[in-house]
Amino acid sequence: MSEEKKEIRVGMIGYKFMGKAHSNAYRNLPFFFNLNVVPVMKAISGRNEAKVKEAAQAFGWESYETDWRKLIERDDIDMIDIATPNNMHYEMAIAAAKAGKHIICEKPLAMNTRQAKEMYDAACKSGSIHMICHNYRFAPAVQFAKRLIEQNRLGKINHVRGTYLQDVYLDTESPITWRTRKEITGLGVLGDIGSHNLDLARFLVGEFQEVAALTETFVNQRPAAESENQNEADKKQMEDVTVEDAAALIARFENGAIGTFEATKLAGGNLNGNRFEINGEKGSIRWDLENLNNLEVYFTDDEPGIRGYRTINCTEKYHPYAEAYWPVGHIIGYEHTFINLLSDFFNGIEQGSSPRPNFEDGLRNQILLESIEESAAKKVWINVSEKSNSISIKE
Amino acid sequence: MSEEKKEIRVGMIGYKFMGKAHSNAYRNLPFFFNLNVVPVMKAISGRNEAKVKEAAQAFGWESYETDWRKLIERDDIDMIDIATPNNMHYEMAIAAAKAGKHIICEKPLAMNTRQAKEMYDAACKSGSIHMICHNYRFAPAVQFAKRLIEQNRLGKINHVRGTYLQDVYLDTESPITWRTRKEITGLGVLGDIGSHNLDLARFLVGEFQEVAALTETFVNQRPAAESENQNEADKKQMEDVTVEDAAALIARFENGAIGTFEATKLAGGNLNGNRFEINGEKGSIRWDLENLNNLEVYFTDDEPGIRGYRTINCTEKYHPYAEAYWPVGHIIGYEHTFINLLSDFFNGIEQGSSPRPNFEDGLRNQILLESIEESAAKKVWINVSEKSNSISIKE
Amino acid sequence: MSEEKKEIRVGMIGYKFMGKAHSNAYRNLPFFFNLNVVPVMKAISGRNEAKVKEAAQAFGWESYETDWRKLIERDDIDMIDIATPNNMHYEMAIAAAKAGKHIICEKPLAMNTRQAKEMYDAACKSGSIHMICHNYRFAPAVQFAKRLIEQNRLGKINHVRGTYLQDVYLDTESPITWRTRKEITGLGVLGDIGSHNLDLARFLVGEFQEVAALTETFVNQRPAAESENQNEADKKQMEDVTVEDAAALIARFENGAIGTFEATKLAGGNLNGNRFEINGEKGSIRWDLENLNNLEVYFTDDEPGIRGYRTINCTEKYHPYAEAYWPVGHIIGYEHTFINLLSDFFNGIEQGSSPRPNFEDGLRNQILLESIEESAAKKVWINVSEKSNSISIKE
Amino acid sequence: MSEEKKEIRVGMIGYKFMGKAHSNAYRNLPFFFNLNVVPVMKAISGRNEAKVKEAAQAFGWESYETDWRKLIERDDIDMIDIATPNNMHYEMAIAAAKAGKHIICEKPLAMNTRQAKEMYDAACKSGSIHMICHNYRFAPAVQFAKRLIEQNRLGKINHVRGTYLQDVYLDTESPITWRTRKEITGLGVLGDIGSHNLDLARFLVGEFQEVAALTETFVNQRPAAESENQNEADKKQMEDVTVEDAAALIARFENGAIGTFEATKLAGGNLNGNRFEINGEKGSIRWDLENLNNLEVYFTDDEPGIRGYRTINCTEKYHPYAEAYWPVGHIIGYEHTFINLLSDFFNGIEQGSSPRPNFEDGLRNQILLESIEESAAKKVWINVSEKSNSISIKE
């Protein structure tokens, strides 16, 4: 059977949290999905040779590189997975596109709209398959929510309220990382976790029309990162946090819905609260990443007297991706969202079209993030639709 | 024992939903609280004699009036309870204050800030006791939340997110009422339910500094009210909804916290979702009116590994007002929030000072509501603190 | 209007927890329900004159007695409410029945089956209206559950699991009360709280056929009661707990369902966990007294993919008794279960028939409790149906 | 680094649900855990060559066998994983033990106590490492519960209530499988899912002393299995269900605790409700497999007024096994319980001792299951301790 399968040789850049999550997904994809196009874990790239060598072995990559440009140039690599800090996405993706490789890129797509547009154009021009890693779209419950909306089970949507609440930054001893440095990360929590929640709103509700936002940095300084901190005297050295650690916004959507959104890493008691509630004329849905297998659904036209939010454990054959895994009620976890995303990616290669979310979504999200940032900075409403329309995005 | 008790003779204006809720509270107050100052249900007032007479009997009032001015003038009335539509509050409260009566007024205090300021000034000048009926402050769980915050159990507060979600307006057959007519109600859902949620934020977090808001009217027309609708032909007659049925805002507080707020009656599956979550540096709290006896509390400095939101059923002697009722775990309901409020009111009469929330809170809330309305209309941030400071409010 | 209403003059015996709860219900019944037969709170009875006098005033009774026999004999008393410790129910109910009074009696009906049968026979013979105070049947959610079952919405019932979990006895300093003394209470937690949960099973599922049970007394001694404990030296005096503080059983029902039940006051974290889940061939329901307004409902024949327990807030006009109170989503509390029960009682007087649960239910429950006690003592299965059949109960 | 690792060559028998779950665990174990002893997926065995060949490829096994005896005899196999229907466990485990192989065996261990005792003796005699696959012990939340109990955080345990509720058998069209045939499965739901829940009770609370039980078969016939069902006429052919589909019991534990337990596949709305609540003198815990990352914990000695069940998301470094996976709040799923179990198994090989649960647990569980079966059949209490004591089990 395997002789019929087309193998795609993957080169991945990055070996930390996302590197581990992506590696795990490549490893397990063929176990759960019977695809005609399958990944081969060819090479991983990172600057620190000792660490990337260790990662290659631990994660199951055949080889490693210490120069990502060499990785992209390799003839035995068909696709590039960019799992690096944000400031590297642009250069890498452009290079990969020019080299004609398929591309998966972590979110947010770029440091700004200009970069994102170039990346999108390059990817389109290359004709290769591209996706952005908004993996939470791929929880079966979220995909099922999408299906219900497409079937008009919620009717016209009036409201969406989204939050992504974590509390890791409450620990003021937690040191500076690349995620708190503007030159590396671009945006703070807004780009890191907010972008995921906003992408879900775009996926499920549609395009944003306008936003009014605020951002805040509650913890302005943190201990310098560990590596610069080797002797005791240095431990007290503090470094500035140069990005926001909280953001909030109100929004109007092009279809008339209104929304509220918030992202923070200072919400005690919320470990990974990527949540949304959507209210339409005919029904409502609620979801929470901390309990990612469940979707709560309400139908206005249920029989009077027995109307109420119902909790659906999305592990039945009726729920997208669920059949790949275990019998009903045997829940999957965070990591499976990546596996599901990859199944779409490799199916996309087979079919010759880029599945959503792709670089177009990355670009649209970037425009949205930049609008939010601008709104917060200038304290004005920003028209997202106008910004998007001013950029030629092919539908 | 009763000879020692001071009796306060109450005259109430209004006999519908709020009239019933207030009447119930007066009736039951002495049963649950052993007060030195107690109400006597002297008279109820309403324009329709048949209906007010029926209400007087059903609710337990000794007499009735069809002219509220006569009620206020009666020598055997010591306090006036204003439970009417919003457009009447101003005139009634001013008259009651001038007559030297104690006053309880339903929320929102007035149709605009100018009215509210006059009412506040009149009440202050009269020296009588005054309160505004933000009854949800008086859920034991909310009062307990206040105590935890005052004890600095949450530390410096960074976040508050409040929603008041109902779904009664999803039924498009639901007719026009005074609550959808701008000339009677002033604001729509923002004043009706949003004001409750915003008052809780002021109570627990502090004063708003600035807001950016949007409002929306999703259902623009509704069937004309029943009374105008007697024959079949009339039933199709539609009337304009002249107020918002949804509102959302982001905010900064004077103490540096940031917040998001939303009020709507189109959120399917939410019957009475007056909710908040507050995150401080040391802890968090969550509350939901639909389950009003419970407070969820999280402490950052709980032992590592066993940190998590805990659900507290606020029916123990440690929780404000709870001892007045039943043994632990025997929950109270919506109506008891009014009884608790009244216990503060009559204690206030005994002690000679107006308990919170009083007309100062009503005025501050009105300034806030007007700021939100203005922000939504002009699509700009509005500085609430400046507005408040420009009005001489005694602290 | 009031001249058309028939007044029933009530005499109540007992003035503690249940005395307060019943008094509150009589006071509020006419406020919420527009009945043709209404109570007049004529007299309360208790042995301690100072306390009963105080209770009469606090609870709103016109007069008091210190001898319950005199109360029953009074010509101006039409019904007797027995809210005393269990060992007094028998004598009082027999006397009340002989005097031709209507009777409400607290649960459990009696100290044993023999007493209960006599009480039942006396009540039947008297022709008066009688009920037993299993008030939890009267939560709107429970009555709605009953309706769903009667409409065959759950299909044939296979399973019921009931628990009544409290934790008040975890405090080993909590003193001896009449509820821990066998000679006064008969059974311990089984009679006190277990009987409520078992009554719900009988109400919703049907008659028990056979039971196998265990009981346990985990805390064998407690400080002597406060009243005997006046000087410091006495405080260390301990007294034996002579009843069970935990009980568990498995059961078969006459209709083929099977069940598990448990009652305890040592289940930390459970303040008032009177709960059940019922599973039928077509659907399931769940309820929890701590959140008494909600009923969770599952239908097997819901559309595949969107099956799941839904949470129904039973405050809509579709839910029994709910219209008597507040708009949707404005929850009621513990005390309203008594008001609802009384509305049935006084309607029963008007219609001339005893509403359920009446003394027949009290007797059947007593047989069930005695079967459980016997099963636990002898460590054998006990056939409840046979016991019931051997006693002539009219259907 | 890999040259230092000791490789254990695995042979697995069975390729259906458990075969897939175990295969997945072997594949992923080295990815998440840095072990010194690691599995090599050498061979899988099954009777149907086409299917086992396909499974070998899909699941990642190097080779396959169609005769399990040959698998066990292979010199290049160090351990045997028995993932077959229950009636084969005995013969296979005995053969594997005699061949000196390490053994993992699915639950329940055997068809009866006699078999289980022989298997236990053979495993002890062989000196190899053995475990039984009660994988739910290995949810981080369950292991954390165990740690809390060992630290005496709950105090003396009084209560345990366990249920394992599924609803797959509500579909009466669901055909006969080996799990409904007594000759293959031994026990029905009691052995299949009940055994998991009872094992958790033994793990967390201790050994059972005595039980009183009932069992029931609600659905007596089901369509014949698919394979025998190929033409349309056959489809109506029904076959008897020869095992129970529901079971319930009450129990006493050797340490004085009491318990209630239930297992059923007819509890609509419960997809995989493997749940327990344990109440001790100082605290309580609750767990639910459907939300397996969470543990709910209550402490009696928490500060008065803020006592309540708290929900702990067991994804922090303080929780057993959690560090092997993802950052806090990024939940794991069902399959990871097997990976955690295997990490203990291979650590056990390194350390030379069989981790729990091992064949001793399998034997003790078998005695317990047989006691329950006997109790239900004879309708008497059965003393489990006596049965266990009569069998020489080394501690």
Automatic annotation (TrEMBL), chains A, B, C, D:
Pfam families in alphabetical order: GFO_IDH_MocA, GFO_IDH_MocA_C
Keyword Oxidoreductase in annotation: yes
Residues in Gfo/Idh/MocA-like oxidoreductase C-terminal domain copies: 146-384
Domain Gfo/Idh/MocA-like oxidoreductase N-terminal: 8-131
One example GO MF annotation: oxidoreductase activity
Tagged with keyword Transferase: no
SUPFAM superfamilies registered for this protein in UniProt: Glyceraldehyde-3-phosphate dehydrogenase-like, C-terminal domain, NAD(P)-binding Rossmann-fold domains
Protein keywords: Oxidoreductase
Protein family membership: Belongs to the Gfo/Idh/MocA family.
Name of the protein in its database record: Glucose--fructose oxidoreductase
Organism: Oceanobacillus oncorhynchi
